[in-house]
């Protein structure tokens, strides 16, 4: 058996044809999905990049593995081991494969970009590509990964992780892909009225009027200074969709080499991402800084020869990290006892599978939030609003309002109480008792770390003042400066 895991950064599922998108952004991914199990309700437990991959490759929620943010104490993995010992009950996913004799290989610059050296644990071969800490383009990744596949692909028992950054801003794919992606209708949301409302009333980095920060200058031709109307929104969306199409071509090259080697029927192909993007949800544009549906929902496409031929779909609620025990169960490998995942192997085998009754999903940059997702509802609690006018509590009816435009928290207090109880029970399950975890969000704030990593409070206040937006300036002052400061007992120690 062989496993090819294709990891496309920042990929919203609803911008793929196989998930219903009208633009022709993903012909190769769509072809893969035609013979795969496609999950419609897969979410990351923790967003964005660092927390999400920590959750997947450790098999544990961020509240347990320690990573919910990109900096501070909440960016430090609680690695299950010390000295020369790697604890078996909290083993990293790749170490499970490695211990079973698999060759585990990654082509990704992730470890350097996010100062996450633990990410290499369990990879027999780790290729950081050619830009230390940078975002190389898909053709640069494939220049190395395709050679490896041609030379080693016919060997048995390998797990190959190939990571593409292109769908992450700043959308610097060749013009031909942007032009091709633009040859299709824009999605209905956000409409002109919504954009203008956001432009007028929402402040903070990566919002309609304050798109970039802290320099407040565009640094890529596909990124307008502001998203003031549908025309400027289209310019940004074309860059995003063009980058999806560009990454899709790279995916097609991988699949073509598999076919050429004659190993398609002996290779499981999995395609997913770390997180999506907010594209207007809660007033944020083309960024992953809140716990809206667009950020936590992921594509998960699994082609398992002999099991998924002809293609199937599942609407079961699952976490991406549920993939970990699913793979070990399907392959007869040991499953570490401290993993948080629950296997969805029955779904792969075509058996009845209900999934989880609800999910808890967090976000740890730009804001600190946690969301509860059921099949119908999404509750979002804001732990720290950052430099944004975020409400403490949101409730959205995802069947009637999938774009999360109407906050029902005050109207449906019965649903708020039910979902808030789920969140409380989940938190107490992990943070109380003899085996309790310390919530990384609480450690982060106690150490004085805010969500302002990419745009400071001072920079945002200065911009609001310079633009004469006095009401918004005063609102941000009230939210951030008129409350007692957080204690900083040991914040500088870990940094």
Characterize the structure shown:
- It is a single chain.
- The chain has 495 residues and is α/β, with parallel strands linked by helices.
- It has 2 domains: 2-184 and 242-354, Alkaline Phosphatase, subunit A (3-Layer(aba) Sandwich), CATH 3.40.720; 360-480, Arylsulfatase, C-terminal domain (2-Layer Sandwich), CATH 3.30.1120.
- The chain contains 16 helices and 18 strands.
- The chain has helices spanning 27-33, 49-58, 62-65, 93-99, 110-113, 138-152, 175-181, 192-201, 230-261, 293-296, 323-331, 345-348, 413-431, 440-446, 457-466, 470-480, and strands at residues 2-8, 37-43, 46-47, 81-82, 85-86, 103-107, 125-127, 158-164, 267-272, 278-279, 285-287, 297-303, 312-314, 318-319, 359-363, 368-373, 377-384, 393-397.
- The strands form 4 sheets. Strands 1, 2, 6, 7, 8, 9, 12, 13 and 14 form a 9-stranded mixed β-sheet that branches. It has a 5-stranded mixed β-sheet with strand order 3-15-16-17-18. Strands 4-5 form a two-stranded antiparallel ribbon.
- α1 (27-33) packs across α9 (230-261) and α6 (138-152) packs parallel to α9 (230-261).
- The longest helix has 32 residues, at 230-261.
- It starts with a strand and ends in a 15-residue tail after the last helix.
- Mean pLDDT is 93; it is low at 486-495.
Briefly, what is this?
It contains 16 helices and 18 strands. It is of the alpha/beta class and 495 residues long.
Give a quick set of tags describing it.
495 residues; alpha/beta; Alkaline Phosphatase, subunit A; Arylsulfatase, C-terminal domain; 2 domains; 9-stranded mixed β-sheet; 5-stranded mixed β-sheet; 32% helix; 17% strand; disordered C terminus
């Amino acid at each position: 058996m062989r496993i090819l895991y294709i990891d496309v950064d920042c990929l919203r599922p609803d911008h793929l044809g196989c998930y219903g998108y009208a633009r022709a952004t993903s012909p190769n991914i769509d072809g893969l999905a035609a013979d795969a199990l496609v999950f419609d309700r897969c979410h990351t437990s923790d967003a964005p990049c660092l927390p999400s991959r920590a959750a997947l490759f450790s098999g544990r929620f961020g509240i347990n593995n320690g990573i919910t943010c990109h900096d501070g104490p909440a960016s430090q993995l609680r690695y299950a081991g010390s000295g020369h010992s790697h604890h078996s009950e909290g083993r990293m996913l790749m170490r499970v494969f490695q211990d079973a004799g698999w060759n585990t290989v990654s082509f990704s610059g992730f470890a350097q970009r996010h100062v996450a050296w633990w990410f290499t644990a369990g990879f027999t071969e780790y290729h950081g590509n050619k830009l230390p800490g940078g975002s190389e383009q898909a053709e640069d990744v494939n220049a190395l990964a395709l050679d490896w596949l041609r030379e080693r692909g016919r060997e048995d028992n390998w797990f190959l992780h190939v990571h593409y950054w292109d769908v992450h801003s700043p959308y610097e794919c060749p013009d031909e892909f942007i032009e091709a992606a633009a040859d299709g209708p824009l999605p209905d949301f956000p409409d002109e009225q919504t954009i203008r409302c956001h432009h007028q009333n929402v402040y903070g980095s990566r919002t309609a009027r304050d798109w970039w920060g802290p320099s407040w200058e565009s640094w890529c031709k596909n990124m307008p200074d502001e998203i003031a109307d549908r025309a400027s929104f289209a310019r940004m969306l074309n860059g995003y969709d063009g980058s999806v199409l560009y990454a899709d071509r790279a995916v097609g090259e991988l699949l073509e080499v598999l076919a050429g080697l004659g190993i398609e029927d002996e290779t499981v192909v999995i395609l997913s991402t770390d997180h999506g993007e907010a594209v207007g949800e809660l007033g944020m544009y083309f960024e992953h800084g809140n716990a809206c549906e667009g950020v936590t929902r992921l594509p998960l496409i699994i082609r398992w020869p002999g099991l998924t031929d002809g293609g199937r779909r599942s609407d079961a609620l699952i976490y991406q990290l549920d993939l970990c025990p699913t793979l070990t169960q399907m392959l007869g490998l040991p499953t570490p006892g401290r993993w948080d995942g629950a296997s969805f192997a029955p779904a792969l085998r075509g058996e009845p599978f209900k999934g989880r009754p609800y999910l808890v999903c967090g976000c740890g940059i730009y804001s600190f939030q946690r969301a509860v997702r059921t099949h119908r509802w999404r509750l979002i609690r804001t732990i720290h609003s950052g430099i944004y006018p975020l409400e403490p509590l949101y409730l959205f009816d995802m069947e009637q309002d999938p774009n999360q435009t109407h906050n029902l928290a005050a109207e449906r207090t019965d649903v708020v109480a039910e979902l808030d109880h789920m969140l409380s029970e989940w938190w107490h399950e992990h943070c109380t008792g003899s085996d309790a975890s310390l919530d990384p969000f609480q450690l982060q704030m106690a150490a004085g770390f805010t969500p302002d990593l990419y745009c400071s409070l001072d920079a945002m206040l200065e911009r609001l003042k310079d633009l004469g937006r006095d009401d918004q300036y005063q609102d941000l002052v009230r939210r951030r400066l008129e409350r007692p400061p957080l204690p900083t007992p040991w914040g500088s120690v870990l940094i």
